[in-house]
Design a protein that fits this description.
The chain is mainly β. The chain has 3 helices and 49 strands. The strands form 6 sheets. It has a 33-stranded mixed β-sheet that branches. A 5-stranded mixed β-sheet has the order 8-13-14-11-12. Strand 16 and strand 17 form a beta hairpin. It is globular, with a radius of gyration of 28 Å.
């Protein structure tokens, strides 16, 4: 605590004591993104800085819809983009001394004899049925959470939360039901369907979360899509070095080693001016992450990782750009997520080696764009245990060693093609896009499971689960997709998005058709209000782990009487991959074979958005998602055979009402407020709990109830404010929500009552975090950034765990909490 107070005092003394000399206002740089209503880049658009009659500079966008400007003077600058067939758009930006800003302009299709006045006080809203929650690194990377990767930024989005065990939940469900695409390439782990380690935040241009993407170009999900666009190097070299020195642990006024070392840097610029650009980000991560439910020093998860993303852009001609990227992310974690009920010896170890390489060509042809890309991906994982002891499950916590080990190597090769022609004039204006993809994937490895014993509080053996040895597995798959979509604007006030996507996955033996449709209506002449609605059908991509289930070790369950004798005969369960139950439809066609699953979701939404002024924009959205055909695991008995069956008869429903307000003003200052009212329910035995990296040993009945991430109410506020006192910046994050539901168990680890009932929830969660930072220009080339961050400033009790077993003497007691704490940092920008 003394070190924390000393860090705070040091920063504020420096902030108040350093005299900042007045300097001549230095010109800045501006990058302009020009997109159409489908969030696609607009090629050959003319971008001007300044008034039309005497612009300071003007350029044409390339195939990525980007125009870069240098030496923009300080003050207000009007940015205007135009192209034949589109209505022009403009925006006013404030250029501070030496600023490096980005701005996005949306061009709507032009209507015959239509004119639109874009006013400075109330910019028009986007006329598209698919609206995203967009995050930019310039807005979020300096927040108190200090996000390092894509997944670190996602909890800032309504509907996305991180549970106490560190899992990311999107719309109440796990990552395996959402898609992650980087530059339109699917980068989820083909074995588990999860996101794995995502790219560094310094390589990101934008992160967009699409809860209802009615554009047919998006597929392989039933929940949401996280779409990431990466950053190109600029015309001037730029570098940053963040957190270069380690944080030391201070306990009882004594240093107890290094807590963490998390340096990260980025370097970008032109290798050949106006021809070849480089942007590379590198993160090293060494952290001893503590669990507040265990005593020091046996409460830490030890994590080491390297995360590197490099991008080269080759401008061959003004009409052709070739982009090559390489993402390398090795990681090793010992004592994975220890807690009170799973101390260090019970936790597994985890190691991965991920490699993703892509090459993409963007070619402008006859006013349209042809995009071609190919990617090669490999995901290796090794899950181990701390020893060879058997695992014991008890009402007061587990002991022994984790029961499962595995070694896995997954791979994917993907080829994508898409074509966006010039806007078509027919009863209005059409923005058409068609595309196709071919994906080959594979997964090979082997599992080894050791016995698991279930005992009561007096250490009496109740049940024993033993496993057979299984042979290695090796599964391959092929998927072919095609889509066509159209954004049709018959008049200036009305626009339709419609299209369809066709998918075929060989192992699932099914052909799936996904229709999508939506509309946007701007009833008033000022275009400050838009109403949107839409409906779509979506299909999950089935991870390869599902098809390796037949190679999992088979279990035998032995039950014991109070005197230690065996009750009855031990029951052996066979691993069986089932198929879809119930009739197929016109949109789902295939054979009723083992593994012939077709998990699908039907989603509709309605929303209204209004722009009050350049400073304030609000949006209200209601979303309803019903999913069926989900893959679940359950016990079954067929004649005299006992089976553990993967079936395709699971279902879920997610409903959410969202209200978002964004207040933004000059110099990048903004505050974002969001409130969500939601409900998530479904089958609890989703396959991801039993397959994948960290399977659970106990299989309970498949119950339909609240999902573990069900949150009725959540309020979130974050943003950036510039204080008048000595140029300080304040970056707050405030969150209030209901507690997560939990499940009560008995001594046999079976359900007691309704699992995840609304009556069994954690206490309400409230956290107020804030970061104060200040930049010091120590030379024309170098800037020093000092900051202090405070976490849980109100010291609210936010429980991390609960004694949920009714046989536990402390049953019903909540415990574990992160108290108020502080952290000091400095960064070098050059």
């Amino acid at each position: 605590m003394r070190s924390s107070r000393l860090a705070i005092a040091t920063v504020f003394l420096v902030a108040s004591g350093v005299r900042v000399l007045a300097q001549t206002c230095a010109p800045g740089e501006l990058r302009v993104f020009v997109l159409d209503s489908q969030q696609g880049p607009v090629f050959d658009a003319q971008v001007k800085i300044g008034p039309d009659n005497a612009p300071l500079d003007e350029r044409l966008t390339g195939t990525q819809g980007v125009a870069d400007f240098k030496k923009i003077p300080c003050g207000d600058a009007t940015v205007t983009a135009s192209k034949e067939g589109f209505q022009p758009a403009s925006k006013i930006v404030q250029m501070a001394s030496g600023a490096n800003l980005e701005v996005t302009l949306i061009l709507d299709p032009k209507m015959q004899r239509a004119s639109v006045d874009v006013t400075e006080s109330a910019p028009p809203v986007e006329q598209s049925s698919s609206v995203t929650n967009e995050l930019r690194p310039t807005e979020v990377k300096t927040l108190p959470t200090n996000p390092a990767t894509v997944t670190d930024t996602l909890p800032l989005v309504p509907g996305v939360v991180r549970t106490p065990d560190g899992e990311l939940k999107i719309d109440g469900t796990g990552e395996q039901r959402s898609g992650l695409v980087v530059n339109q390439t699917d980068v989820t782990d083909p074995a588990t369907g999860k996101f794995s380690q995502t790219i560094p935040v310094d390589s990101i241009e934008t992160v967009s979360v699409l809860n209802t993407p009615f554009l047919a170009q998006y597929g392989r999900f039933t929940s949401a899509v996280v779409a990431v666009e990466t950053r190109r190097g600029g015309e001037k070299w730029h570098a940053e070095l963040n957190d270069p020195f380690p944080d030391f642990r201070i306990r009882s006024y004594h240093m107890r080693g290094i807590r963490n070392e998390t340096p990260r840097g980025v370097l970008g610029g032109p290798l050949v001016h106006q021809r070849i650009y480089l942007n590379t980000a590198l993160q090293f991560y060494y952290q001893k992450e503590p669990s507040r439910t265990l005593p020091f020093p046996h409460n830490e998860s030890k994590i080491q990782s390297l995360n590197s993303f490099t991008q080269f852009d080759f401008i061959l001609t003004p009409k052709q750009i070739v982009t090559a990227t390489l993402h390398v992310s090795p990681q090793h974690t010992n004592f994975l997520k220890p807690d009170y009920f799973n101390p260090q010896p019970v936790t597994p170890s985890y190691a991965q080696q991920n490699y993703v390489g892509t090459a993409a060509d963007h070619y402008g042809l006859f006013g349209g764009i042809i995009d071609s890309s190919i990617s090669f991906q490999r995901f290796d994982a090794v899950i181990g245990a701390q020893g060879n002891a058997e695992m014991f499950l008890t009402p007061v916590g587990n002991r022994g060693n984790y029961f499962g080990t595995q070694k896995r190597s997954a791979r994917r090769t993907e080829w994508l093609e898409s074509w966006s022609p010039i806007p078509l004039r027919l009863l209005g204006t059409h923005l058409i896009k068609i595309g196709t993809s071919l994906t080959n994937s594979g997964d090979e490895g082997q599992f080894t499971f050791r016995p698991v014993n279930i005992v009561d509080v007096s250490n009496r053996l109740l049940e024993r689960i033993s496993f057979s040895e299984r042979n290695p597995f090796n599964r391959t798959d092929r998927e072919v997709t095609a889509f066509a979509q159209d954004h049709w604007a018959p008049n200036p006030k009305l626009a339709f998005d419609y299209g369809a996507r066709v998918e075929h996955q060989r192992l699932a033996a099914s052909l799936r058709i996904a229709p999508r449709a939506g509309l946007a209506w701007t009833p008033f002449a000022d275009r400050r209000t838009v109403f949107r609605t839409g409906y779509g059908q979506f299909y999950d991509h089935i991870p390869l782990d599902v098809y390796t289930f037949g190679r999992y070790p088979e279990r035998t369950i032995t039950t014991y009487a109070p005197d230690g004798s065996i009750v009855g005969t031990p029951v052996q369960y066979l691993n069986v991959i089932g198929n879809v139950r119930g009739p197929r439809s016109f949109f789902v066609n295939g054979q009723a074979v083992a593994g012939g699953f077709a998990p699908r979701g039907s989603t509709w939404n309605a929303q209204v958005e209004h722009s009050f002024s350049r400073l304030l924009r609000i949006r209200g959205v209601y979303t309803d998602n019903r999913s069926v055909g989900l893959i679940v695991l359950e016990r079954d008995r067929l004649n005299i055979t006992n089976e553990i069956v993967l079936n395709g008869n699971g279902s879920s429903r997610y409903r959410q009402a969202e209200f978002t307000a964004r207040v933004a003003w000059k110099e990048g200052q903004q505050l974002v407020f969001s409130y969500t009212r939601s409900h998530a329910e479904g089958n609890l035995n989703g396959f991801d709990a039993f397959l994948g990296n960290i399977p659970t040993p106990r299989i309970r009945p498949n119950v339909y109830s609240n999902l573990p991430a069900d949150l009725p109410n959540r309020f979130l506020m974050w943003g950036r404010l510039n204080a008048r006192f000595q140029g300080l910046q304040l970056l707050p994050i405030v969150e209030y929500r209901n507690g997560f539901p939990y499940t009560r168990l008995d001594a046999l680890q079976d359900y007691v009552g309704i699992p995840n009932s609304s009556a069994t929830r954690f206490p309400h969660f409230f956290s107020a975090d804030a970061r104060v930072l200040k930049d010091f220009k120590i030379s024309p080339k170098y800037t020093l950034r000092l900051s202090v961050t405070g976490f849980n400033l109100t010291n609210h009790f936010n429980a991390l765990a609960v004694h949920a077993n009714v046989a536990d003497p402390q049953s019903g007691v909540f415990f574990g909490n992160y108290h108020r704490r502080y952290r000091g940092d400095f960064e070098v920008i050059f």
